[in-house]
Structure formats: C-alpha cells, structure tokens
C-alpha cells in the first residue's frame, strides 16, 4: 500500500483549502523548503538575538512599569482575540498534521513513523515552520503580563524563551521524531488557549487544574518519544539489539530537545505541587496567591505555561 493510495482514501482534505489560502503568497506547501539564511528567522544569529531581545523587553518593561508607578494596562478584547487566534491556529495546524501523517502511519506503523523519512515531507517541514513562527508570536503572552503588572514566574519566561529555540533546532536538525511532541503540543494548546479565551471573557472554568495535568502528561510522552529515537540511534546498535536504521536527525538537536523536555517535565511537576497540593490538603497557602489573573485572563497556575 502506497502513501498516495492511502491519502486518496481520505474523504475530506483540509490541506486543499489551506493550500488555496497560502497560494496568493506564492507558497506551495508540497514544494516548500527550509533554507537557512533565506527563510525568514532561519539562522542562529536571529534566534539568539530574538531570545535576548525577548528577555530584555520583558525585564526592561517590568522595570519601567514598576518605576513609573503607572497603572496596569488591560484590554479584554485584545486578550480574547489573542487567545482565540492561538486556539484556532493550533486546531488548524493539528488537523493538517493528522491529515499528512495518517498515510505515513497507515503504511509504516506508528512507531516506525517516528523515524521514517516519509514523515519529513516538504508539507510537514512547512507546518513545523508555522509552528516555529507561532513560538515567536507567543512572546506576546509575557508582554501582556508585563503590561498588566502580573507576577512573572521563572517557568513561564524560561519556557517561552527556550521553546522557540527548541523548534528551531528540530527544523535545522531535520529531526523526524519531532512531529510527535509537536502534535501533542498542538492538541494541548487547543484546549489551553480555549480556556484562556473563556477566562479573558470573565468566565470561571472548573477544569483549569487539569490543563497542567495534561501538560505534564504531554511531557512524559515527549520524553518517551525522544528516548525511542535514542534507542534506535545509539542504544540498540551498541548492544546488538533490533533497531530501525533510518532514523533521521542530528545528535545535537536530539540531545538539546531531550534535555529541554526533561527540564520542562521537572519544572511543571514542581509547579503543580506548589500550586495545587495545598488545595488538595484543604489549605490555601501559596495557591491562593497564585490564582491571580494573568494578562491573558488566565491564572498563573496554568496561564501561559505553554507545553513543548
């Protein structure tokens, strides 16, 4: 069974409509290529400058807001549009990934598809690129916090700064396995930003704690996926075990991604314990103070703590 024959069996192809949307911009996803130095935001110099600029803007802006004694700047309409856009964008990209990956998984199986070159098509690389660009856009989450004079947690700033770098390394290193964590992250973001949208409209949502639980679950799965890659690249060949010999990706990108995901997992577990354990034990403690609204209308406990 070929990929084309499986793809032809899909009754609804959202990619056809998406292609019509991007065609006026001269973009053909099936022919798209990542070209370092030519593709927008595609060099390490730009990534490093963007990260430093983000941190300078965040901490410089916080200093100016505090020293000026100015009132918090709030706009519920902008918050709502921002969160609705990211939820809908994540949903669209998730659907496009599923459509493109379904034939690959159908032909090769799920686990082999985490390594197979067929899962690194021009269209998937383009979707990776769009996801990477969204990490730049999500810097606005922190800017909104600064303008609203809301507390900044290390986890929030660290996660936003490093996730953009992470996605860049995965595209640059052509790591096929990265589609697994990316798809999981998009699924989480659909729900997470929908919650932020509801909160920005003043609606109280009882299930916000479960967003953090879902994020932690995602990171556990991410760790398993990245270690699956390492098994086939290093462990199995070294010990004479069965393995796939076509896992695509660079060692540096894989190591960086694995280390970063582990750090996310540890930090999110610590965050969850600090925020919700006092509540589970019947006390308020720090949790009550952490439930203050963030710039996007969400609470710090889950607010803008993006997964990936």
UniProtKB/TrEMBL annotation:
One of its GO terms (cellular component) is endoplasmic reticulum membrane. The chain crosses the membrane at residues 44-64, 85-105, 125-147, 154-171, 177-198, 210-231, 251-272. It is an enzyme of class 2 (transferase). Residues 295-308 have a biased composition (Polar residues). GO terms for molecular function: fatty acid elongase activity. GO terms for biological process: fatty acid elongation, monounsaturated fatty acid; fatty acid elongation, polyunsaturated fatty acid; fatty acid elongation, saturated fatty acid; sphingolipid biosynthetic process; very long-chain fatty acid biosynthetic process. The keyword Secreted does not apply. PROSITE patterns: ELO. It is a multi-pass membrane protein. It is found in: Membrane. Keywords: Acyltransferase, Fatty acid biosynthesis, Fatty acid metabolism, Lipid biosynthesis, Lipid metabolism, Membrane, Transferase, Transmembrane, Transmembrane helix. Coiled coil: none annotated. It catalyses: a very-long-chain acyl-CoA + malonyl-CoA + H(+) = a very-long-chain 3-oxoacyl-CoA + CO2 + CoA; an acyl-CoA + malonyl-CoA + H(+) = a 3-oxoacyl-CoA + CO2 + CoA. The keyword Transferase applies. Its EC number is 2.3.1.-. Residues 284-308 are annotated as: Disordered. It comes from the Eukaryota. Its main location: membrane. Belongs to the ELO family. This is Elongation of fatty acids protein.
């Amino acid at each position: 069974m070929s990929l084309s024959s499986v793809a032809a069996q899909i009754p609804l192809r959202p990619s056809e409509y998406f292609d019509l949307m991007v065609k006026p911009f001269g973009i053909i996803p099936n022919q798209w290529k990542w070209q370092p130095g030519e593709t927008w935001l595609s060099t390490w110099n730009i990534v490093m400058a963007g990260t430093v600029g983000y941190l300078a803007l965040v901490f410089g802006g916080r200093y100016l807001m505090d020293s000026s004694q100015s009132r918090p700047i709030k706009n519920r309409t902008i918050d709502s549009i921002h969160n609705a856009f990211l939820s809908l964008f994540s949903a669209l990209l998730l659907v496009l990934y599923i459509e493109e990956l379904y034939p690959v998984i159908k032909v090769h199986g799920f686990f082999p598809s985490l390594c197979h070159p067929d899962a690194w098509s021009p269209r998937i690389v383009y979707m990776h690129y769009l996801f990477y660009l969204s990490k730049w856009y999500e810097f606005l989450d922190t800017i909104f916090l600064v303008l609203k004079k809301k507390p900044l947690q290390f986890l929030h700033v660290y996660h936003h700064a490093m996730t953009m770098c992470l996605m860049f390394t995965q595209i640059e290193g052509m790591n096929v396995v990265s589609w697994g964590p990316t798809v999981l992250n998009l699924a989480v973001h659909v729900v997470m930003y929908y919650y932020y949208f509801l909160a920005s409209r003043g609606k109280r949502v009882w299930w916000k704690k479960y967003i953090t639980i879902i994020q932690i679950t995602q990171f556990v799965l991410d760790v398993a996926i990245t270690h699956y890659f390492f098994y086939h690249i290093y462990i199995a060949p070294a010990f004479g075990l069965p393995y796939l010999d076509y896992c695509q990706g660079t060692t540096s990108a894989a190591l960086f991604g694995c280390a970063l995901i582990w750090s996310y997992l540890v930090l999110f577990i610590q965050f969850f314990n600090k925020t919700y354990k006092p509540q589970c034990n019947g006390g308020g403690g720090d949790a009550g103070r952490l439930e203050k609204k963030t710039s996007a209308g969400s609470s710090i406990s889950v607010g803008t703590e993006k997964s990936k």
